[in-house]
Amino acid sequence: MPASRPEIKAPRPRLPLLNPSNNHTFIQPTKRINDGQDIANFLTSEAYHDIVTFLMQLNASMFPTVIPTPEGEKNHIQTWEAGTNAVVFSNTVLKLKVLLEDLEGIIAEAPPDQGPRRFGNISFRKWYQIVESRLPELLKRNLPAQVRSFHQDGQDETSPVIELESYLLGAFGSAQRLDYGTGHELSFLAFLGGIWKLNGFATTDPGVEERGIVLGVFVPYLSLVRRLIKTYSLEPAGSHGVWGLDDHSFIPYILGSAQLSPPITKLEELPSEGSLPGAPDPAAVVKALIVERERHRNLYFDAIGFIYDVKKGPFWEHSPILYDISGVPGGWAKINKGMIKMYNAEVLSKFPVVQHFPFGSLFQWQQDPHAMPPPVSAHISSQPARASPSSAQAGYASAREPVQEGTRAPWAQPTSMGRPPMAATAAPWSRHPDRTGLGTGSTHNRGIARDVDAQAQSSGDIVGTRAPWAK
Amino acid sequence: MSDLDRAIAQLRACRPIPEPQVRELCYKARELLIEEGNVVGVDAPVTVRIHTIPALRLALMNGLQICGDIHGQFHDLMELFRVGGDVPETNYLFMGDFVDRGFYSLESFLLLLCLKVRYPDRITLIRGNHESRQITTVYGFYDECLRKYGSANVWRYCCEVFDYLALGALVMGASNTLGTSTSTSTNESGTQLTEEEEIEIEILNSAGDVMSRIPRSMAASSDNHETVNSSPLSETSRGAPARSGPVGTGATSDSLGSVGNPGGAVLCVHGGLSPLVETVDKIRLLDRKQEVPHEGPMCDLLWSDPDEIEGWGLSPRGAGFLFGADIVKLFNHRNNLSLIARAHQLVMEGFKEMFDASIVTVWSAPNYCYRCGNVAAILELTEDGSNGGYIPRANGDVNRTGDLLGPVAAGGQISGPGRRYRVFEAAPQDSRGMPAKKPVADYFL
């Protein structure tokens, strides 16, 4: 299993911790991505760097690990399945687990409305409102003290909790549109990353606490989200239909493929090919029985299993991208690598997904001085520009929240309810190089670029498709 | 067999046609569509009923079927044709959103386009908000074309056609009543009753059996026809015979008296109304041959939604508006319309009438996105057989504001046309074989 070409690499970076003895000013996070052009700024921002670093850190931790044994004996391979005893949850992880259980409990207080409806159930708004009103108390109870009181001398200073709350509240879908997508998932990642930066998680060897975060917090988060989706019929947020990876999620495909990749001895040596011995074949995603067996321990199959739960029809038809990926030669490590590239391109680089991500002091809009300049690519330039000011509409504004199911304009600005990130899981084909024509720049940014082959990062997109009015 | 017929046969088998053929088809379609106005005039065709020969009935049952969103659900589109009657025997009006989200946007749209070119008078296609370059790059059709052809050419050809699609249609001369049912199976003994009942709404299942039948007296008093029992035993206030006698015989009477027949026209549009469009004539004046703008009347017609509000409201979609009952009723009154038929919003029951049946949402994509669990519906209108089948037509112009003080002023609303909804479920899927895996995106190379 050792990598075919051992590389000398710097230790895998972990998201740096803030020093509690230094002054730190927290601020209410605000929306900064207002049109497609702002994506370029985002991709070179401190926030982007931190998000990617944190995600890569979690990803690496899920690779099976070779446990050295005395010479002559066969090495032990430790896998990191959901439910394994080998991962010990820290206090913070346990508390966050409780927090998620509390949020799940609120579903009982907001039973789905039985009246006539379109698709999304309006009772989700009630759930969301209750969560909103209880969140300060819940966070007070379930966040470590060192996080809540992170260097606060002045009483009237903005609390770090304000920033975390903003990300947590953005992690469960849009109460206005009754949808959920990868933008919300990203918001939860930022919530966890924020706690990490504030020294909220246990100090451990690389990978140890990260595994606790994935299996002890992220897995329960996914099951809460899936329950919300099913209970309130949350629709996919801005999806490419069958041509997106998944209607709602992305990160479980990254972490789940890591779980089935070849074992490693050191975190910095992630293989780019091969699979864990005995791992289920990627092609097994079309076999319901295997999916059923694997979903309880593996995040990838868990996500596939959820698709089977909610969709009726041939798998290759409603999930053609996942179907094709199931034929990738090169094993789970290859799939893992591809998923990371795809996440960068189809989630982090897509205006409809990240446009509502709020930036504060933990995830800063400020430019990362070490960032590579973003590529001037057709991909970025074809992002929708800001819609012309719809002042005409303002006059007609109605206060009530409409029940809505359907397509949103990709240029849509939030209407009334603050920060619901709109998500889109996108198809990979939109960046196929054969129609670039102009600007085949590459999205080499710090972080993901370390894990990504340069050659596959062509990012030309949709030449000639810019709408005539796009700026 | 002409090339076109061959293409139709191939597409009916759900196999895409070669790129050069798509190009030619799109060229022909544009030539055809450019001649259409922004608002296409469509006549509700005569429904011929031959009760004694049930086997012939289906073939002759050529009403006008008004259909909502399809979204690339090809097999369900085939089911729709099975339920509604085949082309060209049956006339169809599709209210847009042929593409995006589903797996077969390409096959679905190209088939409809082929049928349009082959039978221009039998098929009407109007534009939905998804028939746009920007939307198809976000919601899947673009990705699909690339995958199925390896280049964006076909997507580009299709988008050029999108720009020429009409923005709306006016159905003229629809009958106010369905008269007797065309159903054979269930109500044999009770046929006399239905003869005497002015049926305003009829709901059929995919086998053509009547699930529910609502006489005008009840439909008028209740907006929620789901609760209405299917046996219309209530006495109708009028004893006049149904006006569904043999066409051309003049054997029908206008039982509605002052709320006369023919009723107003039915406006079909994908989304809804616009604060910038007070009259149907305003729509005719738009320059439609362009990408759907982000705002303005053309955008609103394709993006707006009716909602339980007063006046206009901001749409959560970020384009178009929400509009309330007052807006619809005023618009219908001003334009001598009896009904607005629109699509654009998923309805779990397949169709939804709102605002005293002044507007209806028709949704034709069952189990939308493989997961919504909804049924689909199409709306059938038939031609009014009164006045010897003569329907005054002003070349699609119904903005006869001068007439408004007549029948409409009293009730404030023209009585709606007879509406037959055919409800159907997703097509069975067992027969679809698993294809070979396609090469993956370069992320995974």
UniProtKB/TrEMBL annotation, chain A:
Pfam family, one: PTPA
E.C. code: 5.2.1.8
Compositionally skewed regions (Low complexity) per UniProt: 381-394
Residues spanning the membrane: none
InterPro entries: Phstyr_phstse_ac (IPR004327), PTPA_C_lid (IPR043170), PTPA_sf (IPR037218)
Keywords: Cytoplasm, Isomerase, Nucleus, Rotamase
GO biological process: mitotic spindle organization
UniProt GO MF annotations: peptidyl-prolyl cis-trans isomerase activity; protein tyrosine phosphatase activator activity
Catalytic activity: [protein]-peptidylproline (omega=180) = [protein]-peptidylproline (omega=0)
Region (Disordered): 370-471
Main location (coarse class): cytoplasm
Keyword match Membrane: no
Gene Ontology cellular component annotations, sorted alphabetically: cytoplasm; nucleus; protein phosphatase type 2A complex
Localization per record: Cytoplasm; Nucleus
CDD domains per record: PTPA
Stated family: Belongs to the PTPA-type PPIase family.
Known role: PPIases accelerate the folding of proteins. It catalyzes the cis-trans isomerization of proline imidic peptide bonds in oligopeptides. Acts as a regulatory subunit for PP2A-like phosphatases modulating their activity or substrate specificity, probably by inducing a conformational change in the catalytic subunit, a direct target of the PPIase. Can reactivate inactive phosphatase PP2A-phosphatase methylesterase complexes (PP2Ai) in presence of ATP and Mg(2+) by dissociating the inactive form from the complex.
Protein name: Serine/threonine-protein phosphatase 2A activator
Organism, scientific name: Xylona heveae (strain CBS 132557 / TC161)
UniProtKB/TrEMBL annotation, chain B:
Enzyme Commission number(s) of this protein: 3.1.3.16
Group of enzyme by EC: hydrolase
Reactions listed under catalytic activity: O-phospho-L-threonyl-[protein] + H2O = L-threonyl-[protein] + phosphate
Annotated Polar residues bias: 219-237
Key words, A-Z: Hydrolase, Manganese, Metal-binding
Domain of life: Eukaryota
Similarity comment: family membership: Belongs to the PPP phosphatase family.
Protein name: Serine/threonine-protein phosphatase
Phylogenetic classification of the source organism: Eukaryota, Fungi, Dikarya, Ascomycota, Pezizomycotina
